[in-house]
Amino acid sequence: MSKYDAPGLEPYLALAAFGEGLEKWLATAPPCLAAAASPNPSFAARVEAMSQLMRSLWEEGWGRHGWPEAFGGLGGTILHRAAMWDSLARHGVRGMGLFEHVEILLPTLCGMAPREFMVGALPGFLSGRELWCQGFSEPEAGSDLASLRTRASAVPGGFAIRGRKIWTSWASYATWCLLLARTGTPESRHRGVTAFIVDLRSPGVHVNAIEQANGTDELAEVVFDDAFVPEDRVVGEIDGGWHVAMHILSSERGAFAWFRHCFLYQQLLSQLCHAEAHGDAAVGAALLDLAAVSATGYLGLHSHAASTPLGPRAAFTKLLLCEAERAVHDCILAGDPDLAAGVQDEETALVRQEYLFSRIVTVYGGSQQMQLETIAKQLLRLP
Amino acid sequence: MSGSEAEEAFLASAREAFRRDPGIGALDALGAWDLFGELADREARAATFAVFRAHGRELGRSAALCCLLAHPYTAGAGMAPGSCALAIPRRSTRRGEVFVLLGEPSAPNVLVDRPGVGASLVAFEDTALRPVAIPGRLPMHEITFDPGDAKALLSEERAKPARRQSTFFGRVAAAHELVGSAEGALDLALEHAATRVQFGKPIGSFQAVRHLLAWARTDCAAALEVSRLAAAQGLAAPSRFDEIAKALAGRNARRICERSLQVLGGIGFTAEQDHHHFHSRVLALDAVLGSSAELVCGLGAWLRESRTDPRIPMQLLQHGVGA
What is the ipTM score, two decimals? Predict the structure, then answer.
């Protein structure tokens, strides 16, 4: 039993006290922190270490801050969560790993998913017991997401899902999928799409992991063969899935970018032991790129906390995050040629995985070219 | 009215003031001199730096930056803001250390600060000015004087804290002016992209052109937000944050000008088109108070040698920087 299950405590901490309390707890060197901070090239082992960390954060109360009380959280805003991940990064945790989904999906689910589903379920999501994935991309619908074909047909009591999703991050480890499926005509584009909560344990769902070029299996193909979804698992409105998806993508590109950049600072600092004077300009340039994410990310966090989404301006932060991620890893590669040679001690193997991943960050969450189009069309109003 | 709306409204009035009078008179009209004495206050800082953004955007010709740089040295002596301009030291490849004044000279006194020695004052009438260029309608003069005419103002010990303030606020102001100038260049390119027709369509409908402009806009957003973050923190900012803001603004403003020029094509490289005013001003501002090239190398070396954590402290999250 954690201290938060004891009656009569006043558990919610305002941001300043929260930060101080968390620092004190981290200073006691809890074992879950050491495990999450140690370099382990096995993705499955990292999933396990991060799940343990999430469980401890939940039990100690830190992971409950910043989430709505109605669903089992302690209240507060995204700033609590930002403070938590920033502290964890400063204490050596290498990244959020597949718990990135917590920040990408759960804020939207808290606002738009059926209340009955969320009540009582959120603790399972936040404590690392039940993970999520995001079923958006399809073989014939990548950047052109509105052409997706996975079909949701009305059947008694719910919907039958039929189709195929691909590049679904974390699906092999997830229990739940936030799925976009077509409920309108094939020509309805973004107007005929609905967002569903799909239990990946349901009959008719098949998850096939995709081995990636950096040796991890973070991605998967998910096939839906008339999988049944009850009617009370619709997020938002029927045919209103595009709004849900845009909300998620705006969170991912705006506020969430700030979370990710905390770990990039840590990676830049930790590679300085290999740095030499001829690399000073590159390190300095990476520092500028990180400052750009910090500053635009603050806007994202504060807009999110004030419930005024950034909208298309989130594309700036996404582009800047990718620039920073590549710049930091350019420095890391320049400082340690063993990475290129593929030396297989545990730390080098992991850093090599991270380096290779930094070459593809401009593809996921909306490709770099789509972000530029968003800016050109919606902000610059070009013809 | 939210903080950001108030800032936008003030920026608009500052632009209007510089359109009416690109010289020092605009600062009188805006009541900006009083702000120089209130830089401990966050809103006063936001307003002050908006003046510099407007100065860049409207190609102002005032010596506001040199006056801002002088103020921390002279405030204790009871000198009014605007009555003294700092001679900015610059290392010339050909002539070694030179001092420059930016803007139309308007202050009766010139302040010279020599690290290790202290700060002294020279009457403007005792100096000799040599115009070096008018980059982007911003007059720039090299200034010389007889050291015998300089009167000591602050000992090295007392000059040190003033120097820190002067450098910090000067760099953040220059960063804002760089952003404003780059915004001017980008606006010209956007207008051109919407009206110039080739292959029967406005060139802004071609993806290659759209992406150039979208990158320029992204660089603008980054430079502006980092500059605003530096302004919001003031002297409480982490070590070298002024250098980060100035280097980023200089680097990005140059990139924005280059991309804008590419969109404008040949017309952008003519004297009749205004692009070169913004572009030259960006180059001049990048060259003083630490260029982006120097600062970036210096920041990298500092990080390598000191392993200092350059991040903004989490406490800032509690106060926010205004959306």
Answer: 0.95
